[in-house]
Amino acid sequence: MLPSCQPPSPDKSVQWTGVGGTKITADIVLDRAAPATTAESLKVLIVDDQRAMRSILRQLLHSLGIRHVVEATNGKEALEVLTQIDGWQIDLVISDLHMGTMDGIQFCNTVRRTEALRLRHLPIMMLTSEHDELLLEVIRQVGASDIAFKPISAPELAKRLARLVGVRLW
Fold first, then answer.
1. What is the CATH number of domain 39-165?
2. The whole model's pTM is what?
3. To 10 degrees, the CA torsion angle through 61, 50, 71, 55?
């Protein structure tokens, strides 16, 4: 008799029946939702302290077909979003560099140095108007997946997001 496995139950446990009829039950932990396969299924977290910039990014994302957008005003709020149950469904983060409380560098560094968040391999795009090469190198060193410059157009955003998450957007 070959071992059989039942699909996970609503309480996220799985049962196996092994050779000889031994029943094994194990709780499983889902560390993230299935990756998005379409623009409509993408979930993006925008992190920026300026309401106007968050609004512009939201409009650009909507123009690309992305409807699931969550906002945070600084890196600390973004970390709170990412560590909540629903935060595990975020597919991509677009973060400003300069913010109060926790800036983009501190945020990205914290995500990459926190084991539970690091294991998700969450793409983080840093959006900035800075062109200082030393600062851009620091952004790369803390683990930003991409650096984009303000202002950003919808076609440019689409190209960068498609590369980061593997979903055609334009």
1. 3.40.50.2300
2. 0.78
3. -30
